[in-house]
C-alpha cells in the first residue's frame, strides 16, 4: 500500500499548496513527513490538526516512504530523487529536471493518466504553461487530431515565486510614489509593463519557457508531429496564467462543437458569453483547480482553425493540484491491483 508520504520542499509556495490540497482532498495516508533544505528545517507545520517539525532533506529521508511529492529547484530535484528511488519510494516531481528524460513519464491526469504505468520511480509534472494548454487541447485532439498550435501566454508573477509576486506589488507602489525600485526577480520592471521573455534564450530565438511548451506537449500526447509555436510573456498579474490558444485540426471543429466538448470535460469550466462580458479572468480563477476557457471562436484566418482564451491558477493546476492528482492516480492504481 502507498500510505507513507513525504512532501519535499514543504515550506515553499507550491509546497504549502500541496499540503493544503492533501487536506482538502482528504488524501489517504498513514504517516507523513515534511522535508526542506537545512535553512527551513525546524519550521513547525500544522497538518490535519497535528503539528509536524520540518526535517532536513538528506539521503536517509526516504526510508519507509512510499510516495514523495517534490516541489524544489531543479538542482535539488536532481539530487534527492535518486535517493528516494534507491529507498523504494516513488517521486512525483514538480521540477523541470526530470521531465524530458526518456524513462520518466510526464503526466497530466486528464490527458495521459495511463503513462504512470511506465514509471521507474520518478513521475514528472509539466511546467505550468504547458499543463493548462494540454488540458484544453485534449478533448479537441480526441475529436480531430491537432496538427498545429499557436499559443501566446500572459504569465503571472507568482510563476517566479513569492519574490515575483512581491516585486510586482512593491514595484507598483514605487512607480506610483515616484520612487526608484531595484528589480530582482525579473530582468526588467514588471509593474505597468510586459516582459516578452521567460527563461533563457534556447533555440532559434525561442526561450527555454517556450521550448518547454513545444517538447512537453509532444511528450504528453506522445506525438512529435504536433507543431507548437509559443510566445511567453510575463504580465503584471500576481496569480493565474492566461493563454490565447489557436489550434488547427485535421477536420474543422466548430465553436459549438468545441464548447460542447469542453463542457463535457472534467477539469474544464467554460465561461463564454462575450455579449454579457463573461470570460475567464485571472482574478476569478485564482484558488481554483480547473482550467477555464472562454472566447471560443473560429479562426477566421485558417480553414480548420479554432481559437480560444484559457486561464488557470498556475500554482494550483499548473503545479500543486496536478502533482497531487498524480499521487492520487498512484494510490488508485494500487487499490485496483
Ligand atoms: C513561470 N512557468 O511562470 C514558470 C514557472 N514554472 O515562470
Walk me through this protein's architecture.
The mean pLDDT is 97. The protein has helices at 13-24, 74-86, 128-143, 162-176, 208-221, 255-264, 282-285, 316-335, and strands at 4-8, 31-36, 44-47, 50-53, 55-56, 67-70, 90-93, 122-124, 146-155, 201-203, 206-207, 227-234, 241-249, 268-270, 291-298, 305-312. The strands form four sheets. Strands 5-2-1-6-7-8 form a six-stranded parallel sheet, with helices on both faces. The chain has 337 residues and is of the alpha/beta class. It contains eight helices and 16 strands. The site of 3-amino-D-alanine has 8 residues, from helix 3.
Short synopsis of the structure:
This is Aspartate-semialdehyde dehydrogenase. The protein has 337 residues and is α/β, with parallel strands linked by helices. It is built from 8 helices and 16 strands.
Task: List the keywords.
337 residues; alpha/beta; Rossmann fold; Dihydrodipicolinate Reductase, domain 2; 2 domains; 6-stranded parallel beta sheet; 6-stranded mixed beta sheet; 16 strands; 25% strand; binds 3-amino-D-alanine
What would CATH call the architecture of the largest domain? Answer: 2-Layer Sandwich
- Structural class, from helix and strand content? alpha/beta
- The CATH topology name of the largest domain reads Dihydrodipicolinate Reductase, domain 2
Beta-strand content bin: 15-25%
What is the succession of H and E elements?
Answer: EHEEEEEHEEHEHEEHEEHEHEEH
Question: Layout of helices and strands, plus pairs?
Answer:
Blueprint: E1 4-8, H1 13-24, E2 31-36, E3 44-47, E4 50-53, E5 55-56, E6 67-70, H2 74-86, E7 90-93, E8 122-124, H3 128-143, E9 146-155, H4 162-176, E10 201-203, E11 206-207, H5 208-221, E12 227-234, E13 241-249, H6 255-264, E14 268-270, H7 282-285, E15 291-298, E16 305-312, H8 316-335
Parallel strand pairs: 1-2, 1-6, 2-5, 6-7, 7-8, 9-12, 14-15
Antiparallel strand pairs: 3-4, 9-13, 10-11, 13-16, 15-16
Helix pairs in contact: 1-8, 3-5, 3-8
The structure holds 3-amino-D-alanine.
3-amino-D-alanine binds next to α3.
Amino acid at each position: 500500500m502507498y500510505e507513507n508520504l513525504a512532501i519535499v520542499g514543504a515550506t515553499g509556495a507550491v509546497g504549502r499548496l500541496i499540503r493544503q490540497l492533501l487536506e482538502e482532498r482528504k488524501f489517504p495516508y498513514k504517516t507523513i513527513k515534511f522535508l526542506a533544505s537545512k535553512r527551513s528545517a525546524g519550521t513547525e507545520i500544522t497538518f490535519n490538526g497535528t503539528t509536524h517539525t520540518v526535517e532536513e532533506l538528506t539521503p536517509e529521508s526516504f526510508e519507509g516512504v512510499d510516495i514523495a511529492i517534490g516541489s524544489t529547484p531543479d538542482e535539488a530535484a536532481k539530487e534527492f530523487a535518486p535517493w528516494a528511488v534507491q529507498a523504494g519510494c516513488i517521486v512525483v516531481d514538480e521540477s523541470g529536471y526530470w521531465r524530458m528524460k526518456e524513462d520518466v513519464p510526464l503526466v497530466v491526469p486528464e490527458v495521459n493518466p495511463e503513462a504512470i504505468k511506465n514509471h521507474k520511480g520518478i513521475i514528472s509534472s509539466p511546467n505550468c504553461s504547458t499543463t493548462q494548454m494540454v488540458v484544453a487541447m485534449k478533448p479537441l485532439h480526441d475529436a480531430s487530431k491537432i496538427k498545429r498550435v499557436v499559443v501566446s501566454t500572459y504569465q503571472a508573477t507568482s510563476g517566479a515565486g513569492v519574490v515575483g509576486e512581491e516585486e510586482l506589488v512593491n514595484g507598483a507602489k514605487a512607480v506610483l510614489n515616484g520612487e526608484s525600485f531595484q528589480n530582482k526577480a525579473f530582468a526588467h520592471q514588471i509593474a505597468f509593463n510586459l516582459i516578452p521573455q521567460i527563461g533563457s534564450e534556447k533555440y532559434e530565438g525561442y526561450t527555454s519557457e517556450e521550448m518547454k511548451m513545444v517538447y512537453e506537449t509532444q511528450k504528453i500526447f506522445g506525438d512529435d508531429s504536433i507543431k507548437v509555436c509559443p510566445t511567453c510573456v510575463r504580465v503584471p498579474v500576481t496569480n493565474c496564467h492566461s493563454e490565447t490558444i489557436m489550434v488547427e485540426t485535421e477536420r474543422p471543429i466548430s465553436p459549438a462543437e468545441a464548447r460542447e466538448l469542453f463542457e463535457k470535460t472534467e477539469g474544464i469550466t467554460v465561461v463564454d458569453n462575450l455579449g454579457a462580458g463573461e470570460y475567464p479572468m485571472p482574478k476569478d480563477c485564482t484558488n481554483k483547480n480547473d482550467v477555464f476557457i472562454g472566447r471560443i471562436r473560429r479562426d477566421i484566418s485558417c480553414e480548420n482553425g479554432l481559437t480560444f482564451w484559457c486561464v488557470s491558477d498556475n500554482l494550483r493546476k499548473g503545479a500543486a493540484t496536478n502533482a497531487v492528482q498524480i499521487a492520487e492516480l498512484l494510490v488508485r492504481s494500487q487499490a485496483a491491483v
